[in-house]
Design a protein that fits this description.
With 172 residues, this protein is mainly α. It has helices at residues 2-11, 27-51, 55-82, 90-107, 111-140, 144-171. 37% of the residues are buried.
Protein backbone atom coordinates (compact mmCIF):
# COMPACT_ATOMS: atom_id res chain seq x y z
CA UNK A 1 0.00 0.00 0.00
CA UNK A 2 2.84 2.43 0.83
CA UNK A 3 4.40 1.74 -2.56
CA UNK A 4 1.10 2.38 -4.36
CA UNK A 5 0.49 5.76 -2.73
CA UNK A 6 4.13 6.70 -3.12
CA UNK A 7 3.97 5.69 -6.76
CA UNK A 8 0.97 7.95 -7.25
CA UNK A 9 2.87 10.87 -5.76
CA UNK A 10 6.03 10.38 -7.74
CA UNK A 11 4.22 9.72 -11.02
CA UNK A 12 2.88 13.26 -10.78
CA UNK A 13 6.47 14.42 -11.08
CA UNK A 14 7.49 12.00 -13.82
CA UNK A 15 9.65 9.82 -11.58
CA UNK A 16 10.19 6.14 -12.21
CA UNK A 17 12.13 4.90 -9.16
CA UNK A 18 10.61 4.18 -5.77
CA UNK A 19 11.99 3.78 -2.30
CA UNK A 20 12.40 0.21 -1.12
CA UNK A 21 10.35 1.01 1.99
CA UNK A 22 7.09 -0.93 1.98
CA UNK A 23 5.99 -0.29 5.57
CA UNK A 24 3.49 2.39 6.45
CA UNK A 25 5.15 5.68 7.36
CA UNK A 26 5.34 6.87 10.96
CA UNK A 27 3.66 10.06 12.15
CA UNK A 28 6.95 12.03 11.98
CA UNK A 29 7.46 10.77 8.41
CA UNK A 30 3.85 11.56 7.49
CA UNK A 31 4.28 15.08 8.84
CA UNK A 32 7.39 15.56 6.73
CA UNK A 33 5.79 14.13 3.57
CA UNK A 34 2.69 16.31 3.95
CA UNK A 35 4.72 19.44 4.64
CA UNK A 36 7.03 18.69 1.71
CA UNK A 37 4.08 18.27 -0.67
CA UNK A 38 2.70 21.61 0.52
CA UNK A 39 6.04 23.35 0.04
CA UNK A 40 6.33 21.92 -3.46
CA UNK A 41 3.00 23.44 -4.44
CA UNK A 42 3.90 26.77 -2.83
CA UNK A 43 7.09 27.01 -4.91
CA UNK A 44 5.23 25.97 -8.07
CA UNK A 45 2.58 28.61 -7.37
CA UNK A 46 5.25 31.28 -6.89
CA UNK A 47 6.71 30.30 -10.24
CA UNK A 48 3.29 30.53 -11.91
CA UNK A 49 2.57 33.95 -10.41
CA UNK A 50 5.91 35.16 -11.74
CA UNK A 51 5.66 33.61 -15.24
CA UNK A 52 2.00 33.50 -16.23
CA UNK A 53 0.10 36.29 -17.93
CA UNK A 54 -3.18 34.36 -17.81
CA UNK A 55 -5.30 35.84 -15.02
CA UNK A 56 -7.11 32.56 -14.27
CA UNK A 57 -3.76 30.78 -13.85
CA UNK A 58 -2.35 33.59 -11.70
CA UNK A 59 -5.46 33.65 -9.50
CA UNK A 60 -5.33 29.88 -9.10
CA UNK A 61 -1.62 29.99 -8.25
CA UNK A 62 -2.16 32.71 -5.64
CA UNK A 63 -4.87 30.58 -4.03
CA UNK A 64 -2.55 27.55 -4.00
CA UNK A 65 0.20 29.60 -2.38
CA UNK A 66 -2.13 31.01 0.27
CA UNK A 67 -3.91 27.74 1.10
CA UNK A 68 -0.81 25.56 1.19
CA UNK A 69 1.02 28.08 3.37
CA UNK A 70 -1.94 28.09 5.77
CA UNK A 71 -2.06 24.29 5.98
CA UNK A 72 1.72 24.08 6.42
CA UNK A 73 1.53 26.69 9.19
CA UNK A 74 -1.13 24.56 10.91
CA UNK A 75 1.05 21.48 10.51
CA UNK A 76 4.06 23.25 12.03
CA UNK A 77 1.95 24.45 14.94
CA UNK A 78 0.63 20.92 15.51
CA UNK A 79 4.02 19.21 15.47
CA UNK A 80 5.29 21.92 17.83
CA UNK A 81 2.36 21.34 20.19
CA UNK A 82 2.89 17.58 20.08
CA UNK A 83 6.66 17.85 20.44
CA UNK A 84 7.13 15.82 17.26
CA UNK A 85 10.06 16.40 14.93
CA UNK A 86 9.12 15.74 11.30
CA UNK A 87 11.41 13.04 9.97
CA UNK A 88 13.03 13.42 6.58
CA UNK A 89 12.59 10.26 4.56
CA UNK A 90 13.07 8.77 1.12
CA UNK A 91 9.58 9.80 0.01
CA UNK A 92 10.11 13.45 0.92
CA UNK A 93 13.50 13.42 -0.77
CA UNK A 94 12.09 11.83 -3.94
CA UNK A 95 9.29 14.40 -4.01
CA UNK A 96 11.80 17.25 -3.70
CA UNK A 97 14.03 15.83 -6.42
CA UNK A 98 11.10 15.35 -8.78
CA UNK A 99 9.72 18.81 -8.04
CA UNK A 100 13.08 20.40 -8.78
CA UNK A 101 13.12 18.70 -12.17
CA UNK A 102 9.50 19.69 -12.89
CA UNK A 103 10.16 23.32 -11.94
CA UNK A 104 13.13 23.42 -14.31
CA UNK A 105 10.98 21.94 -17.07
CA UNK A 106 8.28 24.55 -16.47
CA UNK A 107 10.83 27.38 -16.24
CA UNK A 108 11.84 26.70 -19.84
CA UNK A 109 8.29 27.36 -21.04
CA UNK A 110 6.54 30.66 -21.66
CA UNK A 111 3.07 31.94 -22.42
CA UNK A 112 0.30 29.49 -23.16
CA UNK A 113 2.75 26.56 -23.15
CA UNK A 114 3.71 27.37 -19.57
CA UNK A 115 0.10 27.87 -18.49
CA UNK A 116 -1.02 24.58 -20.00
CA UNK A 117 1.89 22.62 -18.52
CA UNK A 118 1.60 24.26 -15.09
CA UNK A 119 -2.11 23.62 -14.73
CA UNK A 120 -1.81 20.07 -16.07
CA UNK A 121 0.84 19.43 -13.44
CA UNK A 122 -1.42 20.92 -10.76
CA UNK A 123 -4.23 18.55 -11.77
CA UNK A 124 -1.88 15.54 -11.66
CA UNK A 125 -0.24 16.72 -8.42
CA UNK A 126 -3.54 17.18 -6.59
CA UNK A 127 -4.88 13.84 -7.82
CA UNK A 128 -1.74 12.14 -6.54
CA UNK A 129 -1.59 13.98 -3.22
CA UNK A 130 -5.29 13.37 -2.60
CA UNK A 131 -4.87 9.66 -3.32
CA UNK A 132 -1.84 9.46 -1.03
CA UNK A 133 -3.71 11.26 1.74
CA UNK A 134 -6.81 9.06 1.43
CA UNK A 135 -5.09 5.73 0.83
CA UNK A 136 -1.91 6.00 2.88
CA UNK A 137 -1.22 9.01 5.04
CA UNK A 138 -4.58 9.35 6.81
CA UNK A 139 -4.98 5.60 7.47
CA UNK A 140 -1.36 5.35 8.70
CA UNK A 141 -1.53 8.39 11.00
CA UNK A 142 -1.61 7.31 14.64
CA UNK A 143 -2.16 10.69 16.29
CA UNK A 144 -5.77 11.84 16.15
CA UNK A 145 -4.91 15.52 15.71
CA UNK A 146 -2.53 14.74 12.84
CA UNK A 147 -5.18 12.53 11.24
CA UNK A 148 -7.77 15.34 11.59
CA UNK A 149 -5.42 17.88 10.00
CA UNK A 150 -4.75 15.52 7.10
CA UNK A 151 -8.50 14.96 6.66
CA UNK A 152 -9.08 18.72 6.59
CA UNK A 153 -6.28 19.04 4.07
CA UNK A 154 -7.85 16.35 1.89
CA UNK A 155 -11.14 18.27 1.78
CA UNK A 156 -9.34 21.47 0.80
CA UNK A 157 -7.11 19.74 -1.76
CA UNK A 158 -10.13 18.02 -3.32
CA UNK A 159 -11.54 21.49 -3.93
CA UNK A 160 -8.14 22.50 -5.34
CA UNK A 161 -8.31 19.61 -7.80
CA UNK A 162 -11.76 20.66 -8.98
CA UNK A 163 -10.55 24.24 -9.38
CA UNK A 164 -7.43 23.11 -11.27
CA UNK A 165 -9.58 21.05 -13.63
CA UNK A 166 -11.79 24.10 -14.32
CA UNK A 167 -8.74 26.27 -15.07
CA UNK A 168 -7.29 23.53 -17.25
CA UNK A 169 -10.44 23.57 -19.36
CA UNK A 170 -10.04 27.34 -19.78
CA UNK A 171 -6.41 27.33 -20.86
CA UNK A 172 -6.69 24.60 -23.50
Amino acid sequence: MFRTALAALVVAFGMTGLSAAADAPTDPQIAHIAYTAGQIDIVAAEQAVRKSTNQAVVDFAKLMEEDHKAVNDQALALVGKLGVTPEDNATSQALNDAATAKLAELEALDGAAFDTAYIANEVAFHKSVNAALADLLIPAAQNGELKALLETGLKLFTAHLQHAEMVAAEVH
